[in-house]
Specification:
alpha+beta; Ubiquitin-like (UB roll); 4 domains; eight-stranded antiparallel sheet; four-stranded mixed sheet; 9 helices
């Protein structure tokens, strides 16, 4: 009898003990850890953004001491690596774990490494026969963004190298490359020696245009917008200006202008132009009201490929109760630096007892040289004026107009 009772008790106690054990384990698993940071203010954002222990709001406290030690070692490595990117190569990083659930991460970055020496070397055509000679190389060195005395950082080091390479490759030397770069750090003295060697490669000369993407527009349209001359040295800004010029026309939805940076093609590298044609036609309508001229209706129509020649056609009709206007303009693709346009205009109004009918024809040539734009325009106009209660009179005029503009655009 007693053995049966004991067996029954054992059968009843075991599930209860198991439940208590699981509950205790769940409580331990839910214990959280808070990690606070003690570091200079200028470094706190960097550490709080990238150290995993500081990023996590709800951090589980490891049960095993070995796991806790591994957690702190990993955090110290992360802190040391982050500080090194900002030029701190001898930091002191420690954890205060006197409170099991509230750790303090103490960071003393130590001295920040400064640039002690910079060696910039140039090889290739830029060092032997490049225009400007040593004066141009001195100018490149003067533009180096990490001079002696500046604090070292990985971002600054990478940016300085890229800026120098971009400066060399911007003109003539499209295939320039960095063949060697070293940042020699002495943690004890907190000094850095920077060495960069750039091979300019050969001078690139522009060849013919290689155009892809034209379907409905005339084959020579892109060439008519180009100011690039075959045989001229490569200039990245000139290619970007050509790309922008094409992009600003109504003909194209997207434009990419570039070259292949293969030294074997440097004698006459093709200029690759990749375009996507835009929809050529657009029609619009509108309505409104004015106290001077009454209700109005407006219609407009544009075609950027008139007669499949790449001509830009723009027209509009405006009908008001006391004034009407109709116009049509045609802009031809440029030829060299010149661009021609012509148009017609009709206007009629009846305002305050004065009727005016006017017809005009006009033509203009616009010339662009650098940032200077000039235009010569001719206008032939016939006008009939009829005052209320007075005889009408007609006039015919031929006028010429010349304008000069200097374009100052901040890109």
């Amino acid at each position: 009898m007693r053995s049966g009772v004991r067996a029954a008790l054992r059968r009843g106690l075991c599930p209860a003990a198991l439940a208590l054990t699981l509950a205790a384990g769940g409580a331990l698993a839910q214990e959280t850890l808070e990690v606070r940071l003690q570091a200079p203010d200028e470094l706190r954002p960097l550490l709080e953004r990238h150290v995993r222990l500081l990023r996590q709001e709800a951090l589980a406290l490891p049960e095993e001491p070995a796991d806790r030690s591994a957690m702190t070692r990993r955090a110290r490595r992360e802190v040391a690596g982050l500080l090194a990117t900002e030029g701190y190569f001898s930091p002191r990083v420690r954890f205060d774990r006197s409170d099991a659930r509230d750790w303090l991460l103490e960071v003393e970055p130590g001295p920040r490494t400064e640039i002690a020496q910079v060696e910039l070397q140039f090889v290739g055509e830029i060092a032997t026969s490049g225009p400007g000679g040593s004066a141009y190389l001195d100018l490149l060195r003067a533009g180096w963004s990490l001079p002696v005395g500046a604090p070292f950082s990985q971002g600054g080091w990478d940016g300085a190298k890229q800026a120098l390479l971009d400066a060399v490759a911007a003109r003539r030397y499209a295939a320039a490359r960095i063949v060697d770069s070293r940042a020699e750090i002495d943690p004890e003295s907190a000094r850095a020696t920077l060495r960069v060697r750039i091979d300019s490669g050969p001078t690139f000369y522009l060849g013919e245009l290689d155009v892809e993407g034209l379907e409905h527009l005339p084959a020579d349209l892109v060439e008519r917008y180009s100011q690039l001359e075959p045989g001229s040295p490569y200039d990245r800004e000139a290619l970007l200006a050509f790309q922008t010029e094409l992009q600003n026309t109504p003909h194209f939805g997207s434009v990419i202008v570039d070259i292949e940076r293969d030294p074997a093609l440097s004698a006459a590298v093709p200029v690759r132009v990749r375009v996507t044609e835009a929809l050529p036609r657009y029609a619009g309508a509108g309505a409104g009201y004015s106290t001077n001229t009454g209700a109005r209706v407006e219609l407009s129509y544009r075609d950027s490929n008139l007669r499949k020649r790449g001509w830009e056609f723009s027209s509009g009709l405006r009908i008001e109760e006391r004034r009407q206007a109709l116009f049509a303009d045609v802009f031809l693709p440029p030829r060299g630096r010149d661009r021609d346009s012509f148009g017609a205009l009709y206007e009629a109004s009846d305002l305050e007892g004065l009727k005016i009918d006017s017809q005009a024809l006009g033509a203009a040539r616009t010339t662009l040289r650098g940032d200077i734009e000039t235009q010569l325009a001719l206008r032939l106009q016939h006008e009939n004026i009829e005052p209320a209660g007075a005889p009408s009179r007609s006039t015919n005029t031929l006028s010429a107009n010349w304008t000069w503009k200097k374009r100052a655009v901040d890109n």
